[in-house]
Amino acid sequence: MRKSPIWLGLSCCLAVAALAMMFAHTANAAQCALISRILLGVSLISLLALGVTGRERARSQGDGRGFRVNPACSTVRFSDVAANEIALNSLKDLVDFLRNPEKYAQMGARIPRGVLLYGPPGTGKTLLARALAGEAGVPYYALSGSDFVELYVGVGASRVRELFAKARKAGKCVIFIDEIDAMGKKRDDASSDEREQTLNALLAEMSGFQPSEGILVLAATNRVETLDPALTRPGRFDRQIEVGLPGRDERLSILRLHARNKRLAEGVHLEDVAQSTSYFSGASLESLLNEAAILAVRRGAVAIENADIEQAYLRVVAGEDRPGVGTGREKRQIAIHEAGHAIASRHLQPESAITRISILPSSKGAAGYNLVQPRERALVDREQLRNQIGVLLAGRAAEMLICGAEALSAGAANDLTRASEIAAAMVNEFGMTDEPYLSLRALRHTLGTGSSDGALEQCKCLLRQEFEKVTQLLASHAAKLDRLTDALVECEVLSGAQLEQLLSSET
Ligand code: ADP
Ligand code: ZN
Ligand code: MG
User: Fold this and answer.
1) pLDDT tens, 135-175?
2) Where does the signal sequence lie (predicted)?
3) Distances in Å between the alpha carbon of 3 and those of 7, 253, 267, 276, 435?
4) What whole-number distance in Å separates Cα of residue 198 and Cα of residue 185?
5) 286 in ligand 1 pocket by Cβ < 6 Å?
6) Do β-strands 369-373 and 114-118 pair in parallel, antiparallel, or remain unpaired?
7) Binding site membership of 287 for ligand 1 (Cβ less than 6 Å)
8) Mean pLDDT value across the chain
9) Dihedral (C-alpha) 120, 48, 391, 474: value to the nearest 10 degrees?
């Protein structure tokens, strides 16, 4: 890992992501969350965030309609959570409240009834909720927003009432609703009758209980911007805690925590691992060390070596290479597509090194990918976003250029989706238009939906421009595109160094 800090980037169906995420001074929570999601929530790393909810949820199922909720006892403590200082401190306050709610009630203190944890997947939201219940020593009820989503009107609402009735009877407790966006989406579509009732039931229950009861509702979401504003009004989820992706030092402390029970060889330095894992979530870091440990066991080794970590890294970000299947022609087309991303990335995002290109299918479902080491940034600007769109569209542009419109493959779907999401955010949120003082999203939110404002046209125009630009760029490097395509067809996988050698000569 030390010598070759590989990277995540992801192309084609994995795409060449590489973006900033610490929008520290875009104060608006929803906006930050949206940005995180677009710019890198993106990543397949999110697939790894399976967490523990699955197991917990199993306990909350059972009766005639498939719903029964029982309290669990959490064994997780704050010491099991690394990094996330701000979130931890905020929750520590609440431990005392859960232990002694009467004290606060007597003093007339108003404690938040609901705490909302939001941030990208795998950042430890579920973990924090369990740690809070564990520290306070109170039972907790773990549910998912989707447990309340039913076909039949009224079922969700009656489940909410059932849950709160039970919790009240039990006394002090934590109610944890994971993925609350499933039940608390904005109420703007026609099919929302059932959801609306469910949400109203939840809001009514939350405003119904007394602080002295010692019941705290915790909820988590990766998509805070889709939540109904009724949920975030004072008196509901009035404390909102962002749980963001860890920075370098935070990654180090998460790695240290998960390395506690693992045997690392002497040459392994977690500082280096932390350095080369920008944009990893806590879940991906945990998974990285775990995969490395498994690889070490398979080798029959006594400790985890750097090579294990490097291999685990590839597995975590890109999955394992699978043998290629398709025909020679299909293989060539994938090579053209990936070569297009690579060449565009080298020109448009030179600060992000490509460390691997593969045209072998990956176990994560990509037909091929570019692995890119993105530079961590505090803020992205318009040009970088445009370039990112260009790199995303370059796979499709190369296919068009070499194979023509008739031969386009379906493999670019994910690239197109992500490019469109970025364009939409630029137009809708960031005011990167000819009206740089406007947030269309905020306006539409306030004025109500249905107002037409040409945003779609603006997005299309932006995408068209970037597509044309990157097509030209690739056309002017046609010889390189050809050379890289041939090399990929022949070798299937190229390292960053091999790529550099191939492309560094003129022409
Ligand atoms: P989320 O609910 O935000 O998607 P989880 O809480 O399910 O994320 O995290 C999944 C796993 O990742 C945790 O069980 C833990 O092993 C690891 N993890 C994530 N964040 C942290 C952290 N800050 N400290 C230690 N482990 C973490
Ligand atoms: Zn692509
Ligand atoms: Mg979770």
Assistant:
1) 999 998 998 888 887 767 778 888 999 999 988 888 889 99
2) 1-29
3) 12, 22, 12, 10, 46
4) 11
5) yes
6) unpaired
7) no
8) 82
9) 180
Question: What share of the chain has pLDDT > 90, as a percent?
Answer: 48
**Number of Cβ atoms within 10 Å of the Cβ of 429:** 20
| 3-state class (DSSP) for residue 39 | helix
CA of 98 from ligand 2 middle (Å) equals 50
pLDDT tens-digit map of 235-253 = 788 889 999 999 999 999 9
How many percent of the chain have pLDDT more than 70? 83
Report the nearest-CA residue for atom 23 of ligand 1: 82
- For 174, the token pair is 């934590």
Nearest CA to ligand 1 atom 17: 283
Distance of CA 145 to the CA centre of its chain: 18
DSSP 220-275: EES-GGGB-GGGGSTTSS-EEEE-----HHHHHHHHHHHHTTS-B-TT--HHHHHH
CA distance 442 to 448: 10
Beta strand 493-495 with 353-358 is antiparallel
List CB-based neighbours of ion ligand 2 within 5 Å.
Answer: 12, 395, 415
Which residues are marked as active site? 338
Closest residue CA from atom 9 of ligand 1: 124
Ligand 3 centre to CA of 58 (Å) is 15
Any atom of ligand 1 within 6 Å of the Cβ of 179: no
